[in-house]
Amino acid sequence: MEEIERSKEDLVALTADLIGFDTTAHEIGAPPRDEARLQEHLAQRLGAVGAQTEIWEPKIEDLTGSRLVPPGLTFEGRPQMLARFAGAGHGRSLLLNGHIDVVSSEPRNRWTSDPNQAQVRNGRLYGRGAVDMKGGIAAMVVAAETLMRLGVRLAGDLLICTVTDEESTGAGGAAAVAHGVAADAAIVTEASGFDVWTACRGSLIPTITVVGRPGHAGWSAADPGDGGAVNAIEKMGIVSEALRHLERQWHGRADQHHPHLSPGDIIPTMISGGEWIVTIPASCRLTYHVAYLPGQADADGWGSKVEAEIAGCIERAANADPWLAEHQPTIEWGPGVPPAEVPSDHPIVRVMLDAGADIGRPGRATGFDNWHDGATFTRFGGTPAICFGPSDVRSAHTIDESVAVGDLVACAQAIAVGALRFSGQVGA
Q: Are residues 191 and 309 in the same domain?
């Protein structure tokens, strides 16, 4: 802990370096940004203290069928990175994971300072990705470097894996799992405020389309049965009200009670419709973000049961309306992410709760209502993954995103202590 405290300036400098790489979340068809340069920077640094490192561009055919990978995505110019510190071979292995992509900095003109040029002001480091999650990546890198610099050899392997595509799809974590990245447990250094996140909700992205029949908006609508106009936006209101009612039902159901997570949500996020300002709209599209609990997942870890429930709700609402009964709404399901949960008595949970207490940042076991890459490692990689990281997630995705410098130091200390406790030490 003292050695990491002495490395504070280096930890701040590494976080600032990572912020300086433009790794804004990828859009399909767009060229790569600085993903490869950032991964090479980390690999060189970790290799210098004894790690075996690997940088690879995943082959999209290795991920065929994964719902975490949207059509058209490629990893060209956007590699993943794995560093491995070999242990003695008779202890538990530990994976440290973080995503290198960040959300857009727009509107940039409202930032106090350049979001890609980190600044320290009043004990806080400002910049896009400071807390989500380049600060957490820097903390886990410095934790590993410190253990190696002190000559510590762990009983089990210590792995560091940094991935792309968490903010947009989850494809980077899926690529790491497909590549064989696994351990006895994992810590994702998202901004948990030193709590241990043991569970997260999954999400589905349905886009619903309702068709109407156009006509002049200046005339009174005639009976649709007589060929009159039908307003698709108004008909979409029937669908949205039905889904709002379903959400209220969810919140009252016993299977929606979870000790660490909120009940499922069905939230409208994007809407479009209409063709001209004086024309009754012929179509309307409405996209939802549907969050669901681990207990709602099917045997494969996905939300097929939730999809069926939503589709049934829309069909029942449509069948009660003469127009929609004859012109059924359609649903397109976008890429989704799975929910996950690690048992509260798993050793990694206890270890990180104790590590937080050791550094004077005691936390609690709780959950995250959104999603993180740990769910992919847990569900599909056989690696129980928790989140433990600095600061407060509410600073993420905001203007003037920031993290307290003291939190970065404390996070690195806790990760180092946790690695020692979880894997065991055989020499120094």
A: no
